[in-house]
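Protein 1 of 2
SEQ + STRUCT:
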Amino acid sequence: MTGSILLLVFVTAQRLGELVYARRNTRRLIAQGGVESGARHYPLIVGLHAAWLIGLWLLAWDRPMHAGWLAAYLALQGLRVWTLASLGSRWTTRIVTVPGETLVRRGPYRFLPHPNYLVVAGEIAVLPLVFGLWGYALAFSILNAAVLWIRIRAENRALGMDAAGARRTRSGRPNGRNRAPPVRTG
């Protein structure tokens, strides 16, 4: 039971800390001329993540933890840190583009256009599995997929990318040679 509470405290503190970091970065990017896109769906993301975490507190605080799923969750944290470190001060939970800035092409962004969303999808599924909550993991994974479908489309539009994450040329056609990850992900 104590381990479950400690893990939930860790995840809650992590999420709250990331919100503070994201808010600071968002303010700075806006001050540099950044433009926010997709603000209308942002409350959906916040609501989903808040409901997910509150539900875990209600259902998992006294449940045993499964070591294999815990190891998978901790591995995802390594990927999370790599993603955030690769974006640095550009990371935010909102879609903010700064005109004239180049897209980040280091870290996991060399391989994927939206690695942070892959990590988040993994976390939403895996953390409930740590506590044996299979139905919870499935339900929130489906909800998260629906929200990410909206989010990734909005982010790709803001970054001038097609659905596959390839940058578009000035004519609007995909430019297969110029695959680039987004300036920020959240």
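Protein 2 of 2
SEQ + STRUCT:
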Amino acid sequence: MSAQAFSCIAESAKIAENVSIGRFVIIEAEVEIADGCVIEDFVTILAGAKIGPNSKVGTYSKVGKKVVIGSHCSLTAYCEIRDGCQLGSNVSMGSRCTLSAGTIVEDDVIMKYSFVVTDTPVLSRNSEKVVGRLKKGARFGANVVIMPGVTIGANAEIGACSQVRHDVPDNEVWYGSPAQFYRKNKE
């Protein structure tokens, strides 16, 4: 492990030997960072988060409490993954992406810049929040907003600058604001 000056790492954090940690990084209690990870400057990783092998967390990013990130994931600068999110393996997030608390992202998902999964409280259920799910192989252009509780199907594609208000089935291409069906994905 290489840790740069001025980082604050909790004693109970478990960090593999071959991890690169930048400057001014905060790593809280019970965090686990696997072999081959790169944690860039000014990153905050909150209590209980787990980051899988060979993943990268970009500058100024925040990883929330009890987040699980799989292997070979890449988060560029200014990403925010809120508490309790689960990311599969080979997930890519462009800069300024935000995942609301509890979002599930399956394997091989690509999110371009300024992507957001929103949530909203359900007042009849003590303000429990409804969040989205991004299924395996889904791809998103820049500036996409996923509204609360929306599921994006496996291998679906969402065009840039879209606002997705309804579930998107597997293997479909949608775009627009609000996003609408465009065509089936070519095999």
